[in-house]
Amino acid sequence: MTVNAARRAWLTDLPVLLVAVVWGSSYFAAKDVTTTRTVLAVLVLRFAVVLPVLVVTGWRKLRALEGAQIRGAGVLGLILAGIFLLETYGVVHTSATNAGLIISLTMIFTPLAESRLTGTRPSRSFVAAAGLSVLGVLLLTQGAGFSAPSLGDLLMLGAAVARTVHVLAMSRMRSVQGADALSMTTVQLGSAVVVFALLSTAPGTGSTPWTAAADFDAGDWLGLLYLSAFCTLFAFFVQMWAVRRTSPSRVSLLLGTEPVWAAVVGIALAGDRPGWLGLLGTLLVLAGTAWGRSAAAPRQTSVVEPAEPDGADPGLEAAGRA
């Protein structure tokens, strides 16, 4: 890669890495505000808080979306709803340690699924880098203790698969190519909050959003706003923006550092002590991510500068194949 190409790659990678930091902290925030009876209520509130802001700020481009683009974003929103349902119920029913380990399997599922779809094989260096990262996650979680598989573990495994589907769908669905990213995010979140609202009205699904909101104290609201503004809006806007400028595998590998940041937040705020195995695992995940970035970089040479939001992005399909 040239110096300018390497600089552009870093400008794309750094926001994605920040998303991993935010998502890593989300386990601590979600556990603080969510119980088994308030999962759907918290999800409704988490999404609904940002939707009015999104609609007002992006109204002109939102109205300009074509029917096919709205339908495509709606499909992505259904996948997104599934991700959050699986993750939130999973975190409630398992430990943050197990959740961080299992969700990191996304960085393995994505290149494997991508290679299956494109009929190509990921490079040996990329596979080795991903394996090193997974080994690091294993050591990280073993440092804090790994319990037997539970319902929550299976839900988190499903969430890892759903994340892979979401990343690949964003890069390969022709109906969303060239659409304004913020408008597409708005439709996705709107679709998801409708799903959560409908489910929350069903009997036996726990507290309603209004009941949960009335019981929140100031700390709960701060945690909810953090989940809404940073872990939801910022994270998925960056993911949709980045996947158009690099490969889904590269995005997933960077997001695969999420367990490391979860451990950092746990140590700093929750007083967790992962031990020397956990610290070694942290170093291996970071090393594997850096190696994976280098291994994926030569395959980005066909990705051109992004097109204007209202036009077709000629680099998107190339990025999806990389």
From TrEMBL:
<dbReference type="InterPro" id="IPR000620">
    <property type="entry name" value="EamA_dom"/>
</dbReference>
<feature type="transmembrane region" description="Helical">
    <location>
        <begin position="151"/>
        <end position="169"/>
    </location>
</feature>
<keyword id="KW-1133">Transmembrane helix</keyword>
<keyword id="KW-0812">Transmembrane</keyword>
<comment type="similarity">
    <text>Belongs to the EamA transporter family.</text>
</comment>
<feature type="transmembrane region" description="Helical">
    <location>
        <begin position="253"/>
        <end position="270"/>
    </location>
</feature>
<keyword id="KW-1003">Cell membrane</keyword>
<dbReference type="InterPro" id="IPR051258">
    <property type="entry name" value="Diverse_Substrate_Transporter"/>
</dbReference>
<feature type="transmembrane region" description="Helical">
    <location>
        <begin position="92"/>
        <end position="113"/>
    </location>
</feature>
<feature type="transmembrane region" description="Helical">
    <location>
        <begin position="12"/>
        <end position="30"/>
    </location>
</feature>
<feature type="transmembrane region" description="Helical">
    <location>
        <begin position="36"/>
        <end position="56"/>
    </location>
</feature>
<feature type="transmembrane region" description="Helical">
    <location>
        <begin position="181"/>
        <end position="201"/>
    </location>
</feature>
<dbReference type="Pfam" id="PF00892">
    <property type="entry name" value="EamA"/>
</dbReference>
<protein>
    <submittedName>
        <fullName>Membrane protein</fullName>
    </submittedName>
</protein>
<feature type="domain" description="EamA">
    <location>
        <begin position="151"/>
        <end position="290"/>
    </location>
</feature>
<feature type="transmembrane region" description="Helical">
    <location>
        <begin position="68"/>
        <end position="86"/>
    </location>
</feature>
<feature type="transmembrane region" description="Helical">
    <location>
        <begin position="221"/>
        <end position="241"/>
    </location>
</feature>
<feature type="transmembrane region" description="Helical">
    <location>
        <begin position="125"/>
        <end position="145"/>
    </location>
</feature>
<feature type="transmembrane region" description="Helical">
    <location>
        <begin position="276"/>
        <end position="292"/>
    </location>
</feature>
<keyword id="KW-0472">Membrane</keyword>
<dbReference type="GO" id="GO:0005886">
    <property type="term" value="C:plasma membrane"/>
</dbReference>
<feature type="region of interest" description="Disordered">
    <location>
        <begin position="298"/>
        <end position="322"/>
    </location>
</feature>
<dbReference type="InterPro" id="IPR037185">
    <property type="entry name" value="EmrE-like"/>
</dbReference>
<feature type="domain" description="EamA">
    <location>
        <begin position="14"/>
        <end position="141"/>
    </location>
</feature>
